[in-house]
Specification:
Blueprint (H helix, E strand, L loop, with lengths): L2 E3 L9 E3 L3 E2 L6 E10 L2 H8 L8 E2 L3 E9 L11 E4 L9 H4 L8 H4 L6 E3 L2 E5 L9 E5 L3 E3 L6 H7 L2 H13 L6 E5 L3 H12 L4 E5 L3 H9 L4 E3 L4 H9 L4 E6 L4 H10 E9 L13 H7 L2 E4 L7 H13 L9 E6 L3 H10 L4 E5 L1
Parallel strand pairs: 5-9, 12-13, 12-15, 13-14, 15-16, 16-17, 18-19
Antiparallel strand pairs: 1-2, 3-8, 4-6, 4-10, 4-19, 6-7, 7-11, 8-9
Helix pairs in contact: 5-6, 5-11
Amino acid sequence: MRAAVLHEIGQEKLEILDDVEATGFGPGKVRIRVRATGLCHSDLSAMSGVLPQPAPFVPGHEGAGEIIEVGEGVSGLNPGDRVVVCWLPACGTCPACKRGQPHLCLAGFMNAGTPNYRRPAGDLFGFAGTGTFAEEVVVDARCAVPVPDDVPFDIAALIGCGVTTGLGAALNTADVEAGASVAVIGCGGVGISAIQGARLKGAADIVAVDPVAGRREAALRFGATRAVAPDELADAKQQITGGEGFDYVFEVVGKSATARTAYETTRRGGTLVVVGAGAMDDFLQLSMFELFFDEKRILPSMYGGGDVLRAYERTIALWRAGRIDLAGLITHRVPLAGINEALDQMRTGTSLRTCIEI
């Protein structure tokens, strides 16, 4: 079968190979025919080494498709079922799951260290234990979440990561208060989803911050009340909040520099939500005095900060009701053979989400 492969960390292009085999099928596993997958910035971060990932590997973790084979002991899933790939499945039994924090379950990460593809030249890993830039993928049955037949594969794929992450940051982690002022730094697919979440919660002012004009224009269509370039943020803070700072600021870039800006843009007693996934050696510096004196809450938000299965259901309900726009997030579509074009679109900021149709 075909798959897009990164041979070494640091390479900028993927190679489309047709001699790849999805491996590991057996008890408790399912084989999925991938139909659509989104390109998430985390895929680029894994390729560049910002996020740890063994190589060679097949990127992709935001995917949807249909089950073609079910392993022994799997219940509730059948061949032909439409599913979204959950890259961080909850085991249900670990301390994090028992505390009601299934998004912090580490069971899914254990899969990331086991190759789940093979070719004549050797084993391949799948990013985050999945690897959806391929025609087929074998995953733990907990990674395959059924979706209703009226949810198109491309919409389902977005729910698998970016939309769940952004919406959840606003709805779960921050729990934005109605009438609040909000700033979102970084307006790709995840940032736009955070904007939609803040709008759902009734935020009065939502300022979108991004260096790319096209993304700023898009943010206004999705619910932002104002869109500015990074060098205009200080003026927006002054004009909207009288210089005090925003009630909620979402950092959706994953860099210490933008996190520091986000902190300074948050009012005293306000909430900074860190959504972007950054590098292990990129440190955010804060003085002990400002931490104490400003009393700003710093809330990291991993995968939307809640039960992802319930989040999937909520997102589908909101989409059906017309309360959120998911189709509009897909600005480009390419076949698997055009994956490097999609990478360029992400790097230059010309896309919100590119859907790879497989």
